[in-house]
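Notebook, student rotation project (T.W.).
Task set for the rotation: take a protein with a known small-molecule partner, predict the structure of the complex, and write up what can be learned from the model alone. Partner molecule chosen: guanosine-5'-diphosphate. Sequence and SMILES entered below by T.W., checked by me.
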Amino acid sequence: MRDQNINSFLARTRFTVSAPDFARCPSECGPEIGFCGRSNAGKSSALNALTGQKNLARTSKTPGRTQLINFFEVPKTGGFLIDLPGYGFAKVPNALKRNWEQNVSEFLAKRRTLLGLILLMDIRNAMTSLDLKLLKFADHQEIDTLLLLTKCDKLSRSQAIKSNVEVSKKRPQSTVLNFSSSNKIGVREASEWVMNHLTN
Ligand SMILES: Nc1nc2c(ncn2[C@@H]2O[C@H](COP(=O)(O)OP(=O)(O)O)[C@@H](O)[C@H]2O)c(=O)[nH]1
Ligand SMILES: [Mg+2]
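Predicted structure of the complex:
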């Protein structure tokens, strides 16, 4: 698919519904790509950058708030982007943390239409134990994974490349991209990955 086509599909993405837990998710009706990562990793910003929309997903400077599973439809592909609740925010009460693990692991295990998972990690703090746990879980469910090393604009080019090489070595089974929503780095490649999974 050509770049222009990819952008025009993703630009039409629109919010459909939020679910508080797995049981209340809409019925499975098309290929889905999940977005997950620690709170503040840049998930909402990435969703906005990939769809070329400023306010599709709310970006926030106070992390840990979104505990809902948000569905976004990509018209004409029959597919969906799914914003999963963020994790690892220190100030979140333990009960809520357990609730997160329950929701996300249940989603990965049971959602049959989930074909791909995009894990967003701050390039300066990638592959924490929670990230690894999630990736193992995705491997086990045979869900394809794309790792976005976000905010790469915060590092020099050579430092960013070095981080990418380190993560790639640990995760040969994943696609690993350096990414910056602010500088639009990696947006084209990530969009391609999304559209390939939604349309193949
Ligand atoms: N420098 C820089 N900051 C970013 C980038 N992406 C997100 N941020 C900032 O990181 C914070 C968290 O972003 P957000 O998208 O809300 O993260 P989320 O909690 O994972 O959804 C916000 O202050 C953003 O402005 C990026 O590519 N570069
Ligand atoms: Mg967010």
